[in-house]
Design a protein that fits this description.
Layout (H helix, E strand, L loop, with lengths): L1 E5 L6 H10 L7 E5 L5 H6 L3 E4 L16 H7 L3 E4 L2 H6 L4 H14 L2 E6 L3 H5 L3 H16 L5 E5 L13 H14 L4 E4 L4 H8 L6 E4 L6 H15 L1
Parallel strand pairs: 1-2, 1-8, 2-3, 3-4, 4-5, 5-6, 6-7, 7-8
Helix pairs in contact: 5-7, 7-8, 9-10
The structure holds phosphoenolpyruvate (PEP).
Length: about 230
C-alpha cells in the first residue's frame, strides 16, 4: 500500500531534515514524501522515498519556474505528483498538460501519482462520473496502465477542508476509475489518523495521498500504521 505525503508549500530543508530524522516508516507500507523543490535534496539525503509535486514534459528548455524529469532523477527523486487540484485551480493545469507531464515522467523512469477529482459544483450537478471519465481517459490515452502510474482520487471539496468522502463514496469512485484504467488508486482529501482505517479498508482504496496530516511525523506515521495493519 502506498501512502504519500504532499507537503505543498510547507517545510524548507531544515524542517525536512528534522522530519527525516524522526520518521520511521512501518514495514509493509511504501511511504513517500513530496516536499517543495528546495527541500527535495534534503529529503533524499535524509533517506525518505521522495517525489516532487510536479514535473515538466521537456527535458530542458525555456520554461521558467519548471523542473524536468532528468533533473529530478539526478537528485535521487523517485517520482512526481501531477495534476494536483491546486495546480489545476491556480496554475492553469489542464487535462492536456497533466497527460504531457505524465508521459514525460514515466518515459524518463519516474513514478507518477496523477490526481483526478470532481469539484463541489460538479458533484452537486451529478457530474462526478463525467468529470472523472474525462480526467482519467486523458491520462489513459496518453500512457495506458503503466506499471509506475497510480491515480489519486481527490474530490476537490474534500481537500484541506476537513470534509472527507464517506468510505462508500470513495469506494464507488475508485471502482469506477478502475473500470477506465486498471492501476492502483489512492484516496486523498482530509485523510487523518481518525479516518484512515475506514477509508483504507475499502476494497478499491489502494493507499492515500495525505496533505495536512503528513506535516507532523506522528500523524503521518499513524496513517502509515493503519495501512500496515490493513495490509497484513
Ligand atoms: C492533498 O493536498 O493532496 C490533500 C489531500 O490535502 P488534505 O489531506 O490536507 O486534504
Amino acid at each position: 500500500m502506498l501512502i504519500a505525503g504532499n507537503w505543498k508549500m510547507f517545510k524548507g530543508p531544515s524542517e525536512t531534515r528534522a522530519f527525516a530524522d524522526a520518521f520511521e516508516p512501518p514495514d509493509g507500507v511504501d511511504a513517500v514524501l513530496c516536499p517543495p523543490y528546495p527541500s527535495l535534496a534534503a529529503a533524499v539525503e535524509g533517506g525518505l522515498a521522495t517525489y516532487a509535486q510536479s514535473v515538466h514534459w521537456a527535458p530542458e528548455g525555456a520554461f521558467t519556474g519548471e523542473v524536468s524529469a532528468p533533473m529530478l532523477l539526478e537528485l535521487g527523486v523517485q517520482g512526481a505528483i501531477v495534476g494536483h487540484s491546486e495546480r489545476r485551480q491556480f496554475f492553469g493545469e489542464t487535462d492536456e498538460t497533466v497527460a504531457r507531464r505524465s508521459i514525460a515522467a514515466l518515459e524518463a523512469g519516474l513514478g507518477v501519482i496523477a490526481c483526478v477529482g470532481e469539484s463541489q459544483e460538479e458533484r452537486e450537478a451529478g457530474d462526478t462520473e463525467v468529470i472523472l471519465r474525462l480526467q482519467v481517459e486523458s491520462i489513459r490515452d496518453a500512457v495506458g496502465a503503466h506499471e509506475r502510474l497510480v491515480i489519486a482520487y481527490e474530490p476537490v471539496w474534500a481537500i484541506g477542508t476537513g470534509k472527507t468522502a464517506t468510505p462508500d463514496r470513495a469506494q464507488a469512485a475508485h471502482a469506477f476509475i478502475k473500470t477506465l484504467l486498471d492501476v492502483p488508486v489512492l484516496y486523498g482529501g482530509s485523510v487523518k489518523p481518525e479516518n484512515a482505517d475506514e477509508l483504507l479498508s475499502q476494497a478499491d482504496v489502494d493507499g492515500a495521498l495525505v496533505g495536512g496530516a503528513s506535516l507532523e511525523v506522528e500523524s503521518f506515521t499513524a496513517i502509515c500504521q493503519s495501512a500496515a495493519r490493513i495490509r497484513s
